[in-house]
Design brief:
alpha/beta; Helicase, Ruva Protein, domain 3; 3 domains; five-stranded parallel beta sheet; four-stranded mixed beta sheet; 16 helices; flat
């Protein structure tokens, strides 16, 4: 019988060139190629390693319960106990709605977007970031002041969704279960409201109208390169019905609206009238905000209706700022202690030094935002000289060091305090 010239040769592997006798098996394919069993194992492992790992959404195991969410928030965020409890329940209900969405029901559950109100530096952005980290979902942050109506100079609202898609590594299905934090929402209130602005080129009402559709839930067309949309551009489509929107702002002037309403509602005029001088008035009127107050502030009714959960955050006092410095998992003092430990030096802040840092932060009136600046300024000269010093094992920062009246104490292995000139400069309060 004539031999087939096109029949594959099974004498050796085409990859490793092992002879059939040395290999356990040689399998032939089309043509003259063959592969042994050992190479099949190697190639299979390579394919498995290089294949993209599909992230399993946390919802596959059910949503986290509110108590667990609160516990995780408490690890990173100091104080704001009531705000953390409200957020935990709202977020749990949101993802429970998604989890049970597979079950058929005659009742359609609406999305519970969240509005955070509080002074700057009280932890609004940190709360949103921690929620996203806790739930292991994509997270994006945007500034409402950069948004404009379609057709005007500025960012389209769809660019918010692009940032979320980018945070999800371009996995649109995963982005559809993410969290978007819109900061400075109070800055887009209508000009005729209390929060008047003459710096925007477009009315805040127009931006609110543009935000409505994506906050409520729609299938949005997102330009993959960002920028303005044009008719001949290809778009990414994302369904925002399950995207959780958390909006935040300082809402300066809103407390005055609430205060006037409370005074007019009460028959005890004399008692509340004395509160106008700050003696009897509650510290935080934002906890008493109603939808009517937001309407008077300058928000359109549709926007108020899209943010059913309102959370007021308390301003941070001195004790809370001290806790911010030391207690959270990523506390500022812990971060600098880690940096110093890399040089073999133990960093210690005295209780008086921590109090001085909190007092300086209160003077700046920016909440916790100024704490890192204060600590960085205090330790700058030490961090400059420390890598060049070999016998330092401990650095102690007291009140005078934080106030700029003395250098931090550098202690050697023998227990002596090293007296060197760190270029002390008088620091501002």
């Amino acid at each position: 019988m004539a031999s087939n010239k096109n029949a594959p040769r099974l004498s050796q592997c085409s990859f490793c060139e092992k002879a059939q006798a040395r290999s356990r098996m040689v399998m032939a394919g089309q043509g003259r190629a063959a592969v042994c069993y050992d190479c099949i194992q190697v190639l299979g492992q390579l394919v498995e390693d290089e294949a993209p790992k599909k992230k399993v959404a946390r919802e596959d195991n059910g949503p986290l319960v509110p108590r667990k969410i609160y516990s995780n928030l408490d690890t990173y965020v100091v104080a704001q106990e009531r705000a953390k409890k409200i957020l935990s329940v709202a977020v749990y209900n949101h993802f429970k709605r998604i989890w049970n969405g597979k079950n058929s029901s005659d009742i359609e559950l609406q999305k519970t977007n969240i509005l955070l109100m509080g002074p700057t530096g009280c932890g609004k952005t940190l709360l949103a970031e921690t929620l996203a980290r806790t739930l292991d979902v994509p997270f994006a942050v945007c500034d409402a002041t950069s948004l404009t109506e379609s057709g005007y100079v500025g960012e389209d609202v769809e660019n918010i969704l692009l940032r979320l898609i980018q945070a999800a590594d371009w996995d649109v299905s995963r982005a559809e279960h993410g969290i978007i934090y819109i900061d400075e929402l109070d800055k887009i209130a209508r000009k005729e409201g209390v929060n008047r602005s003459i710096t925007r080129d477009v009315s805040g009402e127009g931006v609110q109208q543009e935000l409505l559709k994506i906050i409520e839930g729609c299938v949005a067309n997102v330009p993959p390169q960002g920028g303005r949309k044009h008719p001949h551009q290809e778009f990414l489509q994302i369904d925002t019905r399950n995207v959780l929107f958390i909006c935040g702002g300082a809402f300066d002037g809103l407390d005055e609206i609430v205060s006037k309403r409370l005074v007019s509602r009460s028959s005890r005029v004399g008692f509340l009238a004395s509160g106008r001088n700050g003696d009897q008035e509650p510290n935080n009127h934002l906890s008493e905000v109603t939808p009517d107050d937001l309407l008077q502030f300058g928000f359109i009714p549709e926007m108020v209706g899209r943010l059913p959960v309102t959370v007021s955050l308390e301003p941070l006092d001195k004790d809370s700022l001290i806790r911010v410095l030391t207690e959270p998992k990523n506390a500022i003092v812990k971060q600098y202690q880690q940096l110093f430990s890399m040089d073999g030096v133990e960093l210690e802040f005295t209780s008086e030094g921590l109090e001085a840092g909190a007092e300086r932060a209160l003077a700046h009136q920016t909440g916790a935002r100024s704490l890192r600046y204060i600590i960085e300024e205090t330790l700058l000269d030490v961090m400059y000289e420390l890598p060049s010093l070999t016998d330092i094992v401990r650095c102690v920062v007291g009140r005078e060091a934080v106030e700029g009246k003395a250098d931090p104490a550098l202690i050697t292995e023998s227990g002596e305090t090293l007296d060197i000139d760190l270029g002390l400069v008088e620091k501002s309060a």
